[in-house]
Amino acid sequence: MFCATKSDISKEEAADMTNNNNNNNNICDNKEYMPLDDKKDVDDNEKCGILTQCMVTCAVMLSAAGCGMPVGYSAILLPQLYHENDTIQIDEDRGSWIASIHSAATPLGSILSGILMDACGRRFTLQIASFPLIIGWFLIGFSPNYMVLLLGRFVAGLSTGLTAATGQVLVGEITQPHLRGILCSLPFASYSFGILLVYTFGYFLPWRYVAVLSTILPILSLLLFFFLPESPIWLMRHNRLDEAKQALTWLRGGNVNLAKKEASQILERMYAEEKIDSKMTVWRTLLKPEVLKPLVIMNMFNLLQILSGTYLVVFYAVDILKQIQSISTNKFLAAVWTAVARFIFTIIAIILLGQIGRRSLALTSGIGTSIAALVFACFEYLNCQASGQFAAFSILIYVAVNTVGFMILPGVLIGELFPAKIRGFAGGLSFTIFHFAMFLSAKIFPLVRQTIGVSGIFCIFGISSIIASIFLYLMLPETKGKTLGEIEDYFQDKNIFWVTRKRKIYEER
After folding, report:
1. Where on the phi/psi map is residue 121: left (φ > 0), alpha (ψ -120 to 50), or beta?
2. pTM
3. Which of 480, 458, 195, 487 is nearest to 320 (CA)?
4. Separation between Cα atoms, residue 499 and residue 262, nearest integer Å
5. Which of 298, 315, 289 is nearest to 432 (CA)?
6. Using CA atoms, how far apart are residues 364 and 335, in angstroms rounded to an integer?
7. What is the pLDDT along the chain (509 residues), one digit of tens a residue?
8. What distance in Å separates the CA atoms of residue 101 and residue 442, rounded to the nearest whole number?
9. Residues 426/292, Cβ–Cβ less than 8 Å
């Protein structure tokens, strides 16, 4: 399932590709020694390659924006359903099920995504993912009662699970190292935009209208993927070498030399894996250091991210703001402003990813989140009613700094940390654990809030962010500018903590 067979892709063919690539290395790597026309051709290919990689990323962004809308939908749905004149009446317990059932379904989608993206391809899995989202929105929009509404939320949650890891894996595999950080983070900008969009719709429109309008993005995404190629890495691992060459050449803007170079590197790594892993099961592969180490890092990061409040504030934005008496602004409008801040700082995070390392961004976000959350917790605990502006400002700062690293980075790292042979399965498994934990936290959140209040909730957010910062400082490797092969080699070394790594070896690769 994970490696191409020797009968379909010969070692001689891989060697020929490598030799041809070595003969052309100067063309690819030493532009200053090229004739003027050759330089111009390479520059044109580079620009075209950036454009083609952006096209695939845009399709993933449409899927991500579509999935962001049901995540933010509960924040505008619950206050409308609590209204006495609505057709469907709920209490707080039913409301917690409406908010959390989406995350209960998402782990199932994540499990399926790991299986489907390795068996059927990344692109095809994303197309499949559009259908439950479209169906779920129609069930919600035309629901006659509470149970149908829950079913719609559940079905939409399946789509989010199918999309999350698959989109990040696809973008991670089709992009070049110098573009990967920016392009892998763009789906999170559109995810934040989806949350902002559904909050805005909810401010102006009834919840049923919002549900029907939300079908537009998944329909557009479904259609766009028909015109885009599959991941070249997946194609090579499934013995479809000619298609992989065509896809890779298209993604590199027609630069045949660069495509050959990348293809030969992928093939060489596949044959090396084949010698070692030919008899290994998936579960035994998970215990290998280059898989187990990133799996631990990803899942600890995800769990601490949840406890820092990243998504709980999205699910319960309006309800949380209603508990803060000092904020007198319309709570729907205040929730929209938090979504605006989240979207703006997602864009800022994307820019920063191209300028600074992943570690710097993660630590800045963790420390900033802890300070903002703890300051607000103290302010609210002391019941400082006089300054609603300060409370609103604290919330916006919390959302901003939390978004810059904690919301963006886990998805980026999914496409970078796991080795190619098991990237789909490991990514799906990580998202399964993440969304199951998010379901539990969303379900018990109303009870915890009633028990310890908003100040207690933000105190938990702040402490969790401090713990996350310490963990990431010790464990998270710097992946900026590194190829996926170099990252995999790092995890194969005998090291656990990044701060005690073999610094010279990794940095010279």
Report:
1. left
2. 0.68
3. 458
4. 31
5. 298
6. 24
7. 333 333 344 444 444 444 444 443 333 344 343 444 455 555 667 788 788 888 889 999 999 899 889 988 888 888 888 775 567 877 777 888 888 888 788 888 878 887 888 888 888 999 999 999 999 999 999 998 889 999 999 999 899 888 877 888 888 888 887 787 778 778 878 888 898 899 889 888 888 999 999 999 999 999 999 998 888 888 888 888 888 888 888 888 877 887 788 778 777 777 766 665 555 566 677 777 778 888 889 889 989 988 998 878 777 766 676 666 656 566 667 777 778 888 888 888 888 877 788 888 889 999 999 998 898 888 777 765 545 567 777 788 888 888 888 888 887 787 778 776 777 677 778 877 887 888 888 888 888 888 888 888 899 999 999 999 999 998 888 887 777 777 877 887 777 777 766 554 445 44
8. 9
9. no
**For the chain, counts of helices (H) and of strands (E):** 23, 0
Distance between CA 403 and CA 308 in Å, rounded? Answer: 11
Q: Which residue from 289, 132, 303, 144 is spatially nearest to 219, judged by alpha carbons?
A: 132
Q: How far apart are CA 138 and CA 132, in angstroms?
A: 10
Residue type present at position 76: I
- CA gap 67, 478 in Å, rounded: 29
DSSP 3-state assignment of 482?
A: coil
Which one, of 80, 358, 88, 49, lies nearest residue 232 by Cα? 49
H helix intervals, 205-357: 207-213, 216-224, 232-237, 241-251, 256-277, 282-286, 289-307, 312-315, 317-323, 331-353
Q: Please give the angle made by the CA atoms of 246, 249 and 254, to the nearest 5 degrees.
A: 125
User: Which of 440, 433, 432 lies closest to 112, judged by CA?
Assistant: 432
Rg (Cα) of the chain, in Å, rounded? 23
35: alpha, beta or left? (left if phi > 0; alpha if psi -120 to 50): beta
The structure tokens listed for 292 are 């187990």
Q: How many CB atoms are closer than 10 A to CB 86? A: 12
